[in-house]
Amino acid sequence: MRYSGLRVFTQGLFGNRGWKPHWRKPDLKPEYDAIIIGGGGHGLATAYYLAKNHGLSNIAVLEKGWLGGGNIGRNTTIVRANYFLPGNSEFYSFSLKLWEWLEMELNYNVMHSQRGLINLFHSDGQRDAFARRGNAMLAQGDDAVLLDREGVREKLPWLDFEQARFPIYGGLYHPRGGTARHDAVAWGYARAADRRGVDLIENCEVTGIDIEGGRVRGVQTTRGAIRAPKVGIVVAGRSSQVSAMAGLRLPIESHVLQAFVTEGLKPVIDHVISFGMGHFYISQSDKGGLVFGGDLDFYASYAARGNLPMVEHVMEAGMTLMPMIGRAKVLRSWGGIMDMSPDGSPIIDRTPVEGLYLNCGWNYGGFKAVPASGWCLAHLMATDRPHEVASRFRLDRFRTGHGIMDEEGTGAQHNLH
Amino acid sequence: MRLSCPCCGLRDRREFTYYGHETFLHRPAPDAGARSWDDYLHNRDNPAGPTRDLWYHDPCGSWVLVSRDTLSHAVTGSEPVAGVGGTS
After folding, report:
1. Is A382 exposed, middle or buried (0-12, 13-18, 19+ CB in 10 A)?
2. Are A171 and A151 in contact (CB under 8 A)?
3. By CA distance, what is B88's nearest residue in A?
4. B18–A253 C-beta distance less than 8 A
5. CATH number at residue B52
6. Residues near A19 by beta carbon (within 8 Å), at least 6 away in sequence
7. Whole-angstrom distance, CA of residue A20 vs CA of residue A1
8. Using the beta-carbon criterion (under 8 Å), do B12 and A253 form an inter-chain contact?
9. Which of A182, A392, A417, B52 is the S-S candidate for B22 at Cβ 3.0 to 4.6 Å?
10. pLDDT at position A300 over 70
11. B50-57 vs B62-69, strand pairing mode
């Protein structure tokens, strides 16, 4: 069923009784041309682009829980292309271009809202760094505007500009940045992949990866063995466990990152605002809730929930930046499992096992990458060559030291990102 | 979450700085080769369940090896990292 304004109207006339499920519940086949482990945003996008760009239709996405139940349903929905380093720059730029057509592409309302993103700075040195980053963004063909204090004040008059510790000097404005409805991205890709014949298999946990003579032959699951010549591991925070089934030990450490949402308020924050010095960022969802978060709790964790010290820190940072949110009531908080790589940049690469591909290391920035990540992993799986915008996301860069992409400039070591 | 310091007893997590998995204690020999050093610096078992990792207790300056569960955040024990150099 194609969605359109007319269909919404006619369905409304007839009590909305004609809507069908977004995707089938197919039976598991014993063999596929390609298997994607992980039914999150990246996995579903990979399956969709394998079908659409490369003509494969006999594909299965295996999900141990329900589709979109992992980080795609737990993030703070920010979409941006404001990276600095070659490798990341072209990839996220490509991803943002895919975002801008995503709703047409998927025939699905992902509520992509390019409301603009403002990264605040608080010193001369930081201004120089942001000016340089802005130039890198412009050189990449994206948009960036360096705002001075008055420029920021015009857009965000309610910030505390005169705070003693971090007086606001200005901000780097990225007008094409924004947010999207996170669940809708998973559902949209799932529906679009399903329409192209991809089998989306929920409640099917992979328990083993079959390898013969250095080649992948298929996977073992809680619903039996499935054969496939190509298997993609796209499981974010659980990458280490799934890869261990193929004898791989990854440069990944899983951490908890918390997020928060308040009760619904009238529109008050029009942009996405990031206060890097306080490890705080905030936007307002279309439903009215203030969606905000901070930094990692900074210890390895799979609990999908954090601890109180970081809750306190995030609230303090929010109050420092914008005292006006002090009366808003926090509705809930939660945590996601972040697949942290040593340099803070992702991995989309082959593995030493032929036919087995790896997509992980998204740190705390995987959501905006979903379209390009799927596109590039599909390209890699179909052609066995990396896509040009993801060619630097190599698994071996830590071993060789070549092509480390450390945006923070702190060093390629686990406890530094 | 509270962690036990061998010197100071049970203390708030905020008094500790996380360093990483106990892998950091098993530093290879200088001539062990690039593979060993890559493994030591970058690759991790990253267990979902019981783990042992290194924490630094800021007030007293002790390095602590903490046993805990990454799925539940339960802390099951801790011991001092004595006589191990070169971790900081």
Report:
1. middle
2. yes
3. A415
4. no
5. 3.30.2270.10
6. A1, A11
7. 8
8. no
9. B52
10. yes
11. antiparallel
Asked whether residue B88 is domain-assigned, the answer is no
Q: Which two tokens stand for residue B82?
A: 């004595």
Residue A411 touches chain B, beta carbons under 8 Å = no
How many domains does the structure of chain B reveal? 1
Is residue B53 within 8 Å of residue B18, measured between CB atoms?
A: yes
In this prediction, residue A243 carries a pLDDT of 98
3-state secondary structure chain B: CEEEECCCEEEEHHHEEEEEEHHHHCCCCCCCCHHHHHHHHCCCCCCCCEEEEEEEECCCCEEEEEEEECCCCCEEEEEECCCCCCCC
Kindly determine whether residue B43 and residue A254, on different chains, have CB atoms separated by under 8 Å: no
The count of CB pairs under 8 A between chains A and B is 72
In a domain, B30, yes or no: yes
∠ CA A204-A208-A213, nearest 5°, is 135
The verdict on B67 touching A (C-beta cutoff 8 Å) is: no
Interface residue B87 vs chain A (CB under 8 A) = no
Cβ within 8 Å, pair A251-B70: no
Check whether domain A114-176+253-340 has CATH 3.30.9.10, yes or no: yes
Higher pLDDT, B26 or B85: B26
For residue B54, being part of any structural domain is answered with yes
Positive or negative, the CA dihedral A133, A135, A136, A140 is positive
pTM of the prediction?
0.96
> Whole domain around residue B59: which residue ranges?
2-80
pLDDT of residue B30: 95
**pLDDT digit string, tens, across residues A187-224:** 999 999 999 999 999 999 999 999 999 999 999 999 99
Residue A358 in this model has a pLDDT that exceeds 60: yes
Q: Do A302 and B70 touch (CB under 8 A)?
A: yes
Q: Is residue B23 part of a domain?
A: yes
Partner B contacted by A238 (CB < 8 A): yes
Q: Which of B21, B22, B46 to mutate to test the interface with A (most CBs of A within 10 A)?
A: B46
- CA atoms lying within 13 Å on the CB side of residue A117: 25
**CATH of segment(s) A25-76+183-252+343-416:** 3.50.50.60
Q: A166: which 2 tokens? A: 């971090």
> From B42, which residue of chain A is nearest by alpha-carbon distance?
A251
